Amino acid sequence: MDRREALRVLGAATAVPLVSRDLLALGRDAHARWRARPEFRALDADQQALVTTLTDLIIPETDTPGAKAARVDQFVDVMLADWYDVDDRQRFLDGLADVDARSTAATGKPFTDATPAQQTALLTTLDDELARQREAHQSTSKSFFRTLKWLTLVGYYTSQIGFEQELHEHIIPGMFDPCRLLDAAARGGED
């Protein structure tokens, strides 16, 4: 079973809560903010490349586009710049620096220059560390890798690509207003 298939199996039970109305609104807002101001504000060029690589390893392209095609890096930048407080943003950026430092220590190269096998090995290590924290009932709320995974999933599944091509959902335009007064023609007759 590949990673995408595992996400589908796990996501089958959680797809509805994952893309709840509020979360979908948050994601759509973040994607719209990027379109309104298409420039990186929280991530520098190296960090942006690292986020792109990491998120694409989490949700790679298969029979549907992956995180890179969905521009999850842009979503992450908007979330960091507009939604995260200074401490949480810095914790995330420190996590990116830690990934590069670990990669350099293990391979002699920054993460983005490592081979796909080396990148996957480091990602597996991060995931194993997170799993051990959970098994030990330690808080993972401030874990870089947990945050990265959450941002990746939300950014992907609230993007047009993730929502329509992966989840096969479509937003129906318009709004239901149960208290709206209808004129005679709308009621199907005359007064």
Number of domains: 1
Regarding quaternary structure, what we see is single chain
Q: Which shape, going by the Cα principal axes?
A: globular
What share of residues is helical? 55-70%
The tally of beta strands, per DSSP, is 0
Number of continuous helical runs? 9
Mean pLDDT: 80
The secondary structure category is: mainly alpha
Largest sheet: none
Q: What are the secondary-structure elements, in order, as H or E?
A: HHHHHHHHH
Low-confidence stretches: 6-18
Strand content: under 5%
Radius of gyration: 20 Å
Euclidean distance between termini CA atoms: 63 Å
Keywords:
191 residues; mainly alpha; 9 helices; 65% helix; globular
Question: What would you note in describing this structure?
Answer:
- With 191 residues, the chain is mainly α.
- The chain has one domain (17-169).
- It has helices spanning 3-18, 21-36, 45-58, 72-83, 86-107, 116-135, 144-157, 160-166, 184-187.
How are the elements arranged and paired?
Blueprint: H1 3-18, H2 21-36, H3 45-58, H4 72-83, H5 86-107, H6 116-135, H7 144-157, H8 160-166, H9 184-187
